[in-house]
Write a structure and sequence with these properties.
By secondary structure, the chain is of the alpha+beta class. The chain contains 10 helices and 9 strands. Helix 7 packs across helix 8 and helix 9 crosses helix 10.
């Protein structure tokens, strides 16, 4: 056995080791390792290292758009607001930062370059899988959409559901397939986009609440919706024909709105004119009848006087219109009337 080993553990096998000698040799060994052979410098370094580790593990900062969920030995303690905070060090407490004021999003069918959130988009191999859907009329469509959400309850987001972000992706895909499957391909691509977004938002929020995921869905927005590539050219031709059809319908409606209201206006004008003429004739007839009745009453009272008065009034209206007048006595007979053919009188008598 080497001499130093014997010196370290004692003189023989049956003798006990000398602990004082061992401590003295260890102290000398550390003195040789330290610069200047001073043990106080080593103790200072150890104390500084321990204090630094203590402070580093006991303090943490929460950003302004987040909160921290504090756990003590893995059990939830409380939630702290943004700012600088302290906790028990050395792994006793742990703080998880949750961005409750930040709007997060998940993309389906495409990926934004440089995204930090690993659950924002799926892997490249899954893009085609999650966008391939079957509509209600058994047609295929490639649907791309975005879900924007916020973390509303941090404790539920962390503890109620395992992998809540991934679960939200599955919920979003399931709801979108259900909503798209209830509509025709024309509705999905053209006029039904807004209805699909509204219905999908309501159903996603309902499932998120049911599963206690702690998230609030802000918006569901459809992006590109295209038919599968093998039929895309044919579908574009059908779509162009449908657009042409809508164009012709709009032009026909424009002409209709230009001609029909004008005809309706003329019709109403003619009806009003006829109605006015009808009322005029009725009122004139009623006035003539009333005048005749009043005249008849006077005639009954004095027939000769009334007859003469009517004759005189009639002559007063007729005679001023006659340019040439010939007056003959009633008792005169065999009188040949002279017709004046003077050009000044125009042959009127």
């Amino acid at each position: 056995m080497p001499q130093n080993s014997n010196d370290l553990w004692g003189a023989g096998k049956n003798s006990l080791p000398d602990f004082d000698k061992i401590l003295t040799q260890s102290n000398n060994h550390f003195k040789q390792l330290l610069p200047g052979k001073c043990p106080s410098s080593f103790l200072i370094l150890v104390i500084v290292f321990v204090l630094g580790t203590f402070v580093w593990s006991a303090s943490y900062t929460v950003p302004s758009d987040s909160v921290a969920v504090v756990q003590r030995f893995g059990r939830y303690v409380h939630t702290v607001p943004p700012g600088l905070h302290l906790m028990f060090p050395l792994g006793i407490d742990s703080a998880t930062i949750v961005p409750v004021k930040r709007q997060l999003k998940q993309e389906f069918g495409f990926a934004t370059p440089g995204a930090i959130d690993p659950y924002q988009s799926t892997r490249k191999n899954d893009h085609n899988r999650e966008t391939q859907m079957v509509t209600g009329d058994l047609n295929a469509a490639l649907v791309e959409w975005v879900v924007q959400y916020r973390i509303s309850v941090p404790t539920k987001f962390l503890f109620e559901v395992r992998e809540p972000s991934e679960t939200l992706r599955y919920v979003s895909e399931s709801v979108m397939r259900e909503v798209v499957g209830d509509r025709t391909v024309d509705e999905v691509i053209t006029v039904g986009r807004q209805d699909i977004e509204s219905e999908a938002l309501i159903k996603m929020q309902g499932l998120s609440t049911k599963y206690a995921m702690g998230v609030s869905i802000d918006q569901v927005q459809l992006k590109n919706i295209n038919p599968p590539k093998p039929v895309q050219e044919s579908f574009n031709e059908v779509n162009q024909a449908q657009q042409e059809k809508e164009k012709l319908i709009n032009e026909a409606r424009r002409d209709y709105n230009k001609v029909i209201p004008l005809a309706l206006g003329e019709k109403d004008q003619r009806i009003r004119e006829a109605d006015g003429y009808r009322l005029k004739r009725i009122n004139e007839a009623k006035g003539d009848a009333a005048r005749f009745n009043a005249l008849y009453v006077e005639y009954i009272k004095a027939p000769e006087v009334t007859k003469r008065r009517i004759y005189i009034e009639t002559m007063q209206e007729i005679l001023p219109e006659i340019r040439s007048k010939i007056i003959i006595d009633e008792q005169t007979i065999n009188v040949l009337s002279l017709l004046n053919l003077d050009s000044k009188t125009g042959g009127k008598q």
